[in-house]
Structures are given as structure tokens and as C-alpha cells.
Amino acid sequence: MYHEIAEDIIRSIHEGLFTDKLPTEAELMTTYDVSRNTIRRAIDVVYQRGLLRRIQGSGYYVNKMPQPSKTVINLVAGAGASLHNSDNHLTSRVVTFDKIKADPELVQPMKLKPNSELYRVVRLRYLNQQLYCLEEAYYSTTAVPYLPVEAVNGSIFDFISENYDVHVTASEEYVSLAPLAHDQATVMGQQPGKEVLALDQTNFYGNGVAFNFSTTYFVYPGLRFYSYSFPVSHS
Fold this sequence. Notes:
Elements: H1 2-14, H2 25-32, H3 36-48, E1 52-55, E2 59-62, E3 72-74, E4 90-101, H4 104-110, E5 117-127, E6 130-140, H5 149-153, H6 156-164, E7 170-179, H7 182-188, E8 195-205, E9 209-218, E10 224-226
Parallel strand pairs: 3-10
Antiparallel strand pairs: 1-2, 4-5, 5-6, 6-9, 7-8, 8-9
Helix pairs in contact: 1-3, 2-3
């Protein structure tokens, strides 16, 4: 049900019915005759498509996006979601899927205790069958106690949202040029040491609890990054 509502909201945005701000959750509940939880799940889908931004205490605003493009990485989405046209198709090939203990490099960004258990997912992602990126992602088993292979091959964030009611409430991103290590370059068919765009991202849910950290190495040509900021009131 919430997927259908999400698609209807997306269609309304594209058709210019929502140009600035979404109606309130209560108004959407009345429009679609569903529960608040269903509306929140639908909004989360739209948010992860990169079409909305959250402003605490004010609601959801429609992003004033550049022309739709498969080469735009939307940092506002909070989950590193790319802005793909409906004609584009993103697929995955899993390289590594296992459980590990958090090492010091993961303890810090995720604010974990040493040796905390994590799911590790390394996968190649393809856009219309062309290599898009290499994603190295880690998920806390405290927030995600079980992650099936089916989810790893599809949308992990959709699975987490649907099964554990974990939604991204904030994220931290760091963009850099990073040289590919030998094993990364080999699996991507690139030259070791080649510098590519890299996005480090930590995602939080609830009251600022980190549940996911990832580094994504992009090799798709012509990529750009989109973000949004608003003035902070100084009183």
C-alpha cells in the first residue's frame, strides 16, 4: 500500500502539484485514508528517491532539483540515493556478504563499542548494465538483527524500513578523491591507484543512533553531487 502512495506522491511532484512543501502527515492520512505509519513509510520512499528534504519542526519540502539526471548523486536524501530517471535501472552484484566485528576504523564513525557485530556488504552496482560504483557498507546488528540475501541483492534500506521500522533521520557525508586499492581496482576492472569520487556516509535513526556506515566509489562518467542548506538562525 505505502509503495503505491509513494508513487502517487512522486507523480504529483513531477506534475507540479507539490512545488514547495508536502501536505502534513494528517492531511495525507485523510487524502489516502491510511494510518500515520503507512504515510511515514510512503514519505520515506519519496525521501530516499531524493525528492524531499526534512526541516525539523516544519515538515517535508520539495527539492528544487536540477534537470533529472542519472549522473546526479543526491546528498540531501540521507542514504546516498541517486536521482535516476524512471527509464534507468540500478542492479547489484554482491562481492562479499558476511558478519564481522567492528575494527577501530568503524567504531569511530558509527560510535560503536569495540568488537560490535556488523553485517558487511560489498557490492558492485550497475546503472543500465554499466558499472556505476563499488559500495562497501556496514550495518549494526543491534538495529538490523537479520539481513537476508534477497535484501542485499535489492534495496537494503527498503528492507530495513519495512521490517525494523528503521528510518534515516540524519546523515553525515564526506566527499573526496580516493585512490583505489588493488583489490578494489581488480573487482571493478580499473587501474590500482586510480583516483575516483568517494562518498563516506554515516546514517542515523531515532535519536541520533548510527546504524549504517558506507564508502562508495563512483566510476560512472560525468557524476555531480547535489546538496541543500538553509540559513541557521542566530538569536
